[in-house]
């Protein structure tokens, strides 16, 4: 199998994240007093305060998921991203997000189902309940975020297309638009980006098709207009800007498994007891907390063991990583 590696940027060109984080925190502290007061004074504020950058999502239904968690700062979550279609560096997706065209947008659903077809983004936004759920997201490298997602349970959307008993997995495919997206003009990854879930994972009530975050529509860099969120898995399972979902009988070959099967498995469950070949996964650093933040213990299934451990009963998770 051909191995493609993401080209690395010379270290001299990279400002270490903790350095720019601290610099930004300083700037924010200097300029932020008045803004913070304004935010606090805003009337009708929801449990999670909206940053007021993008269009608000109306008639949100709040759920109890993660109510005890403190959301990551919006600026941190939207300025440090992986979305290779928009560029390789962590800053490129935010800088290039304007290139992503999110309307019109159609999700095609096909494969092992009785009613293959398609559904437009506006129908997804209006025909299914929009829920706001606070979930942890943990990226495989170093960082963890707590995000108030807005979305619809993936199971509701999938059920409409009537999967058959042959649908053992789903394959999710992201946008293909090399004319507009700079990362897709180079073979940095095999395009399009592909993710997959076992059907019971896809139908699990915690799994969301996200359409927004922090009470607003999803920013391009975070996967607008439709993105997968599976809170007990590593962040790389979060396929962004999804255009197609296919019900399949065999386990799909996902982008990261195709690239580096020894490092990234199909399941990608957060598991502090199974190390990545190049680093320990036992501890994590909250995104936005800077150089001196204490790393904390990573929790099994990212803290969702009670809800999902049964899906993997009897499996050797060091082999099925
Ligand atoms: N989806 C697409 N289409 N392209 C990508 O490059 N990167 C993945 C995932 N989804 C990626 C993608 C990786 S490696 C991570 S860690 C998460 O998106 C990051 O999501 P975030 O930027 O919203 O934190």
Any descriptors?
19% helix; 8 helices; disordered N terminus; Sulfite Oxidase, Chain A, domain 2; binds ligand MTE; 13 strands; 321 residues; globular; alpha+beta
Query: Major beta sheet, specifics?
Result: 8 strands, mixed
Number of helices: 8
Distance N to C terminus: 20 Å
Give the overall shape, derived from the CA principal axes: globular
Q: CATH-wise, what's the superfamily?
A: Oxidoreductase, molybdopterin-binding domain
Query: What is the CATH class designation?
Result: Alpha Beta
Q: What percent strand?
A: 15-25%
Q: Decide which structural class fits the backbone.
A: alpha+beta
Q: Would you tell me the overall average pLDDT?
A: 86
Domain count: the total is: 1
**What is the CATH third-level topology name?**
Sulfite Oxidase, Chain A, domain 2
Q: Cofactors and ligands present?
A: ligand MTE
Q: Give the H and E element order.
A: HEHHEEHEEHEEHEEEEHEEH
Number of β-strand runs: 13
What is Rg?
Answer: 19 Å
The helicity comes to 10-25%
* CATH architectural type: Alpha-Beta Complex
């Amino acid at each position: 199998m051909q191995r493609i590696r993401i080209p690395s940027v010379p270290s001299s060109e990279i400002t270490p994240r903790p350095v720019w984080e601290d610099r930004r925190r300083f700037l924010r502290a200097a300029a932020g007093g008045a803004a913070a007061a304004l935010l606090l004074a805003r009337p009708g504020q929801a449990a999670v305060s909206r940053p007021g950058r993008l269009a608000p999502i109306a008639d949100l239904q709040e759920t109890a998921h993660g109510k005890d968690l403190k959301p990551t700062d919006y600026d941190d979550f939207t300025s440090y991203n992986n979305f290779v279609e928009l560029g390789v560096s962590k800053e490129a997706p935010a800088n290039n997000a304007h290139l992503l065209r999110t309307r019109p947008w159609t999700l095609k659903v096909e494969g092992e189902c009785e009613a293959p077809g398609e559904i437009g983004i506006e129908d997804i936004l209006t025909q299914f309940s929009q829920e706001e759920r606070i979930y942890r997201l943990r990226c495989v490298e170093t960082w963890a975020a707590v995000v108030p997602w807005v979305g619809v349970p993936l199971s509701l959307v999938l059920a409409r297309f009537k999967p058959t008993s042959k649908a053992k997995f789903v394959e999710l495919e992201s946008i293909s638009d090399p004319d507009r997206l700079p990362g897709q003009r180079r073979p940095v990854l095999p395009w399009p980006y592909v993710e997959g879930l076992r059907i019971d994972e896809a139908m699990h009530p915690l799994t969301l098709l996200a359409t927004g975050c922090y009470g607003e529509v999803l920013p391009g860099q975070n996967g607008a207009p439709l993105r997968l969120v599976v809170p007990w898995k590593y962040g790389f399972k979060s396929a962004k800007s999804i255009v197609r979902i296919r019900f399949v009988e065999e386990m799909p070959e996902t982008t990261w498994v195709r690239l580096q099967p020894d490092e990234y498995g199909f399941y990608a469950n957060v598991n502090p007891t199974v190390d990545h070949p190049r680093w320990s996964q036992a501890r994590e650093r909250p995104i936005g907390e800077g150089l001196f933040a204490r790393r904390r213990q990573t929790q099994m299934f990212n803290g969702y063991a009670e809800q999902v451990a049964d899906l993997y009963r009897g499996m050797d998770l060091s082999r099925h990583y």
